[in-house]
Amino acid sequence: MLIREATAADWPAIWPFFHVIVAAGETYPYPRDLGEPAGRQMWMLPPPGRTVVAVDPDGTVLGSAKMNPNSTGGGSHIASASFMVDPRYARRGVGRALGEHVLAWARAEGYRGIQFNSVIETNTAAVALWQSLGFEIMTTIPEGFRHPAKGFVGFHIMYRRL
Amino acid sequence: MLIREATAADWPAIWPFFHVIVAAGETYPYPRDLGEPAGRQMWMLPPPGRTVVAVDPDGTVLGSAKMNPNSTGGGSHIASASFMVDPRYARRGVGRALGEHVLAWARAEGYRGIQFNSVIETNTAAVALWQSLGFEIMTTIPEGFRHPAKGFVGFHIMYRRL
User: Fold this and answer.
1) B45 within domain boundaries
2) What are the chain B neighbours of A143 within 8 Å (beta carbons)?
3) Within a domain: residue B21?
4) Interface A:B, Cβ pairs < 8 A
5) Does a structural domain hold residue B60?
6) Considering its fold, how many domains does chain B have in total?
7) Interface test with A, best of B78, B152, B158, B161 (most A CBs within 10 A)
């Protein structure tokens, strides 16, 4: 698996699984009916943000991550990131590889920490993955997320100092 | 003191104290050199957001608040808000009146909670005010904010269920 900078030419390979994940509405607080142009604008970030893809040796896009300052001004030394792995390629370490890549990027860019603003508590695989990469659950906003099947559930704010 | 909807005609009265507060860089993670057009776009929110002003009986604008959903999709039932009080009219209860107004607005709009994403811990007057209005410090991101005089300080994520 290789992780490389995403280009505009990668978006057609990202959109199908991005769309499936967003439309399911279970893991991200994005509008479930988010259209393709708005999705592209949200995911394919210009500097100081950055978007990467994880590809297998034949070039298949397995997943993608975007990373960016979490805030501006006096808050711009904290990064944030979001991750999407094609469900067809789950359980292959794609999310972990993307997470490790984001940690390396944030360190290299001089960020002092990474904050995840909204990790849905029912997304237990993601919570466990981020914990294994050194992120802590700083707090949980109770009933902060409306899950389409489970109703109101909490979301975690997770953080890792760099 | 009256709190009413802000209109485009109020912006010239908001900008001077908005600019002073943003340029000081002590209480909001906004770019300190934020220009007037970008400031206007950031502060004067279209629906579903909303911006109000607190005015005294002669019409002087004493402060302003903006309020908005904190997120989209499955997170759109949590509100957020930001507040600016003209330093010349501090200690008159303007912030409290704006805060109470935002609480009433959020309840009326059916939000289930209000989340403040970044209350700088050195802004003790604001922290105390929000606590007195029922907000809790959910967590503090250590060194999450670079204060121009005090260096790296924490910021609180505060929340109140409605």
Assistant:
1) yes
2) 112-113, 161
3) yes
4) 95
5) yes
6) 1
7) B78
- Looking up residue A70, the CATH number of its domain turns out to be 3.40.630.30
Question: CA–CA separation, A83 vs A11, rounded Å?
Answer: 14
Interface with chain A: mutation pick from B22, B34, B117, B120, highest number of A CBs within 10 Å: B117
CB contacts of A72 in chain B (<8 Å) are 29-31
pLDDT in tens, chain B (162 residues): 999 999 999 999 999 999 999 999 999 999 999 999 999 999 999 999 999 999 999 999 999 999 999 999 999 999 999 999 999 999 999 999 999 999 999 999 999 999 999 999 999 999 999 999 999 999 999 999 999 999 999 999 999 999
Q: Are B61 and B53 in contact (CB under 8 A)?
A: yes
pTM attached to this predicted model? 0.96
Distance (Å) from the alpha carbon of A57 to chain B's nearest alpha carbon: 35
Determine whether the interchain pair B144/A78 forms a contact, defined as Cβ–Cβ distance below 8 Å.
yes
Domain of A49 in residue numbering reads as: 2-115
**Shortest CA distance from B22: residue in chain A:** A73
Amino acid letter, residue A5:
E
Q: Is residue B55 part of a domain?
A: yes
